[in-house]
Write a structure and sequence with these properties.
The chain is an alpha/beta fold and 217 residues long. It has one domain: Ribonuclease Z/Hydroxyacylglutathione hydrolase-like (Metallo-beta-lactamase, Chain A). The chain is 20% helix and 30% strand. The protein contains 5 helices and 15 strands. The protein has a 7-stranded mixed sheet with strand order 1-2-3-4-5-6-7, covered by helices on one side. The chain has a 6-stranded mixed sheet with strand order 8-9-10-11-14-15. α1 (41-50) packs parallel to α2. The longest helix is centred in the C-terminal third of the chain and has 14 residues, at 169-182. It is globular and about 50 Å long. Bound molecules: zinc ion (2 copies).
């Protein structure tokens, strides 16, 4: 569990691909939002119930199935909306899992176009939204006070794949440069897979954030 200004964030590593689902609780409110609900939605629903929280929105960093397959169950339980970049809408379909032997994926309804500047998570709290394509066309990161939910843009010592359909190495480099430019070095990075890290640590050790690779044409 991580505490930031007015926000508590819990990380749940979920099957089938070890994807991180994040539950953000707004302090002094009985409300929460979820990022990237993966393959064990019951774990999230139970946690929310245990703490008396109502999940009011689901946000997706991008449209890959391991970042949304838990959405429908949470949505059915709490009647919440789901928000995603329009460019990844086509990735939410029952056949997205075919190549992994996953069939009839549970499809959420009312998927909403995300506001590409910022999202309002409570009356006085917003998160900054940054478009960061490269891993896929509609990839987004969300920056709060002291942390970034960065999806499959950056991981500890690595970055998101660029070889999947819709991936693009040039765009990835551009997105990483923009991200480095806009993100304070001391901020925590809450990635879509693996451990939580910090931008300043990645700047020091992550080879993909070094000039050599970033500036290579
Ligand atoms: Zn992905
Ligand atoms: Zn992923």
């Amino acid at each position: 569990m991580k505490k930031y200004k007015d926000i508590t964030i819990r990380k749940f590593e979920q099957p089938p691909f070890g994807t991180n689902t994040y539950l953000l609780t707004i302090e002094n409110k009985k409300e929460a939002i979820v990022f990237d609900p993966s393959g064990n939605p019951d774990e999230i629903i139970n946690k929310a119930k245990e703490e008396g929280l109502r999940i009011k929105d689901i946000y997706l960093t991008h449209g890959h199935l391991d970042h949304w397959i838990g959405s429908k169950k949470i949505q059915d339980f709490f009647e919440c909306d789901i928000h995603l970049h329009e460019k990844d809408f086509n990735l939410i379909n029952p056949d997205s899992g075919k190549m992994f032997g996953l069939f009839n994926l549970p499809i959420p309804k009312n998927i909403k176009k995300i506001n590409l500047n910022q999202i309002q998570i409570s009356t006085k709290k917003t998160l900054q939204v940054l478009e960061t394509p490269g891993h896929c066309p509609g990839h987004l990161t969300f920056t709060g006070d002291g942390y970034v939910i960065c999806g499959d843009l950056i991981f500890q010592n690595s970055i998101g794949r660029m070889d999947l359909p819709g991936g693009n190495e040039k765009q990835m480099k551009k997105s990483l440069k923009k991200f480095l430019d806009k993100t304070p070095k001391g901020y925590d990075l809450l990635p879509g897979h693996g451990p939580i890290t910090q931008l300043k640590i990645e700047i020091e050790y992550n080879l993909y954030l070094k000039k050599g690779w970033l500036d290579q044409k």
